[in-house]
Amino acid sequence: SNILLDAEMNPKVADFGTARLFDSDETRAETKRIAGTRGYMAPEYLNHGQISAKS
């Protein structure tokens, strides 16, 4: 359910478990709740609730 296909039928891994809509003028969101699929989460986010540009 988390595999999408592009126009050339190439598979893309997706996880919409943390997806949400933003208003057009909203540039960031803050939450204290960790959410997502553990196997696809960045380790630093999973362990400490902090993300970086690399994650």
TrEMBL record:
This is Protein kinase catalytic domain. Keywords: ATP-binding, Kinase, Nucleotide-binding, Serine/threonine-protein kinase, Transferase. Residues 1-55 form the Protein kinase domain. It comes from the Eukaryota. GO terms for molecular function: ATP binding; protein serine/threonine kinase activity. InterPro entries: Kinase-like_dom_sf, Prot_kinase_dom. The gene is AK7. The keyword Cell membrane does not apply.
